[in-house]
Amino acid sequence: MNSISSRVAKGAFWMIGLRLLQRSLGLISTLVLARLLMPEDFGVIAMALAITALVELLTMLGLDMALIQKKGAGNSHFDTAWTLGLIFKAASALLLVLSAGLIAEFYSDARLTDIIYIYAAVAFLSGFENIGLVAYRKELEFRKEFNFQIIKKVLAVVVTVGLALYFRNYWALALGTLFAQFTGVALSYVIHPYRPKLTLHYWREMLNFSSWIVFNNFAIYARDRGADFVIGKVQGAEMVGNFRIASEISSLPTTAIYLPITRAVFPGFSKISDEPLRLKNAYLSAQAAVSIVSLPAVIMLMLLADPLVTLLLGQNWLHIIPVIQILCLCGATKVAHGNRHALFMSVGKPSWIGFVTVIELLIMYPAIIYALMHNHDLEVIAWIKFISSLATIPLGLHLISKVIDIKRTDWLAISWRPIAATVLMSVVVTTMHTYLPGDGSAYTAALQMLLLTPLCVISYTLFIWLLWQLAGKPTGIESKIIGSEQFTKVIKKITGMIR
Questions:
Q1: pLDDT tens digit string along 180-239?
Q2: How far is CA 264 from CA 62, 110, 398, 475, in A?
Q3: What is the mean pLDDT of residues 284-301?
Q4: If you write DSSP's letter for every residue of 352-407 in order, what string do you get?
Q5: Which of these, 106, 6, 142, 127, lies nearest to 58 by C-alpha position?
Q6: Is residue 384 within 8 Å of residue 368, measured between CB atoms?
Q7: 288: Cα separation from own chain's centroid
Q8: How far is CA 443 from the centre of its chain?
Q9: Per-residue pLDDT tens for 387-435?
């Protein structure tokens, strides 16, 4: 158990580090591109992706998860998964090529035809990626995947920014994606020595596992990206471009911390899925880690959204600040949902993922369509997404408790301190913000960021440490982080400075 727990913890560390670097590079790229391009350019790409991502969902069979979950998977299983992926990716590429004209006609935007062709090429190329990379995750060797993803991301960012400087329009985004995919395929064969072969020996076994994965992918896509499709159709490219940038920025904390932990813990959960007590302890540990780090990060972004957008995106994007702040609240609800995706997959209940997501969709989409038809702005759309996510938290927690018998006291034990510390941090930062100048200039925004960012980190750190002390120093993720000798020294230095 200790060996697996240790490797999962290291895997979470590498995945969080990977995601942080990826999102940092992505943020830098977005900030530069936002200065070089207009909201309409992002909107054109968002409309194209709303369709291409929908088609590609047919190819997201979860074959990597099947290989990770299956104990004793051999070369034939890996080869079958690679062959099926290649077939489905080629089919999706062909479908995109054939439907490009119809998509452009649907949106009444002729520019989309050629863009769809580019994304068809991206889909086709992705089918050739080396399936051997999955073995790294299966054996909890996350450092090697870290190296692969970082090299790929750095090259993609550099090339995309260079293309933006040359084209000054949406072509930079489309061609940058094509280059990133080509690079990813080439690197996958450099990083891993496995050489897949064409075979369909285990196709029935693979596809039986994938049936619910495909359904879940469609449901999750509809939840996370489907609004782009509706907004683009009803309101046009500029509005969907604004919403997409707001969504990208607001999701930084959850995608940088929450998703990497889920990606890392799934292989570990799968290895102990038939041991309920160990699985429960592993799940609670993972969820405690998500709560103590992700929740304050999401709220911190919400508190700093105004100076962040002013300083980094510029005057053209000030109107999306309230949307970002509301979507940050939506991100906070994602933390409350927990690592249920990895848990349900590991115990063979993928249908539960789709069930909860469909309930959320039934709440969200009628309200979004109504709001758009009555010309409500993006803030209303953001509130609808928040309320829909919030409403399904009790159902998700109920299903989790049915798998590993978690009680309310278990949830309370791992969540009350991060929640309380985050609330106290918000009060401190909001109070300080009122005393700072706010004339809307870049200089003032820089001053606010310079003062408030460390205040967020220091205040939360002090509050979570104090609450942990008052709670009697319980064992868990806090005892490993804030109970360490190094952390205690940092606290002493901070309190000394305050005095």
A1: 889 889 888 988 888 999 988 878 777 776 677 778 877 887 888 777 777 877 777 778
A2: 16, 42, 24, 22
A3: 87
A4: HHHHHHHHHHHHHHHHHHHHHHTT--HHHHHHHHHHHHHHTHHHHHHHHHHHH---
A5: 127
A6: yes
A7: 18
A8: 31
A9: 999 999 999 888 988 888 888 888 888 889 999 999 999 999 999 988 8
Asked whether 389 and 334 are in contact (CB, 8 A), the reply is yes
d(CA 129, CA 59): 13
Query: Residues in the chain, how many?
Result: 499
Tracing tokens 């970082």 back to the chain, one arrives at: 150
| DSSP at 320 | G
Residue with tokens 């609800």: 333
Neighbours of 148 (CB within 10 A): 19
456's CB contacts (< 8 A; 6+ apart) are 296, 300, 303, 304, 425, 429
Q: Where are the strands (E) in 290-352, listed by range?
A: none
Q: Residue 437 and residue 427: Cα distance in Å, rounded?
A: 18
Instruction: Give the pLDDT confidence of 355-370 residue by residue, as tens digits.
Output: 899 999 999 989 988 8
Cα gap 483→491, rounded to integer Å: 11
Using the structure block, give the residue that is written with the tokens 């959204």. 305
Q: What is the mean pLDDT of residues 294-317?
A: 88
Look up the pTM and report it. 0.68
Please, are residues 179 and 159 in contact by the beta-carbon 8 Å criterion? Answer: yes
Sign of CA dihedral 403, 406, 407, 411: negative
**DSSP per-residue codes, 155-175:** HHHHHHHHHHHHH-STHHHHH
- Closest listed residue to residue 64, CA positions, set 50, 79, 81: 81
- Name residue, tokens 């190819």: 59
Amino acid 373 reads: M
Q: CB within 8 A of 210, min separation 6: which ones?
A: 61, 62, 63, 66
Three-class SS of residue 285?
helix
Question: What is the C-alpha separation between 456 and 171, in angstroms, rounded?
Answer: 39
Taking CA 153 as the corner, what is the angle to CA 147 and CA 155, rounded to the nearest 5 degrees? 105
CA–CA gap between residue 336 and residue 333 (Å, rounded): 5
pLDDT of 204: 79
In the DSSP assignment, the letter for residue 439 is: S
Could you give the percent of the chain with pLDDT greater than 70? 84
CB 384 within 8 A of CB 369: no
Tokens found for residue 240:
């969907």
Contact present, 133 and 148 (Cβ < 8 Å): yes
- CA-wise closest residue to 41 among 107, 104, 112: 112
Residue 161 half-sphere exposure, CB side, CA atoms within 13 Å?
15
- Is-contact 287 339, C-beta < 8 A? yes
